[in-house]
Specification:
Largest sheet: none
Order of helices and strands: HHHHHHH
CATH class of the largest domain: Mainly Alpha
Number of domains: 2
Structural class: mainly alpha
CATH superfamily of the largest domain: Uncharacterised protein YqeY/AIM41, N-terminal domain
Strand content: under 5%
Number of strands: 0
CATH architecture of the largest domain: Orthogonal Bundle
Distance between the termini: 44 Å
Length: 148
Amino acid sequence: MGMIEEVRAQMMEAMKNRDKDRKDALSMLLSALKNKAIDKRSDLTQAEEFEVVKREIKQTKETMELAPEDRSDIKEACAVRLAVYQEFAPEEMSEEAIRVQVTEVLEALGIAEPSGKDKGKVMKELMPRVKGRADGGLVNKIVGEMLS
């Protein structure tokens, strides 16, 4: 079952349970997923679905941070939305898993003595492998450590 169907099923469940906040969050996520599918004019891949979820999480965090201090209602609504979105977010890769991927890329590229000069080649090969499953900043930091 695709993520759109899963979100729709959970939204129906929230409606039956009269959980308005959860239903609203799921409705917003469903809308974002459908809009992406409409823009693409075909079904979304799992990576694209995760991309949409991550974008929604990022936007909700920004809304939460930018809300005025006296607007606790906005912050509470964002907290509920974040909790719901996290259920659909992909599992983040651990630092160890990223290091394993970097080692595999180095072997695939035939780089025995990695140096800072190789960073561009390594990142170009590595990022498609970890896209959507690892934070780019963390990947960059780990590659920098391993190549220096």
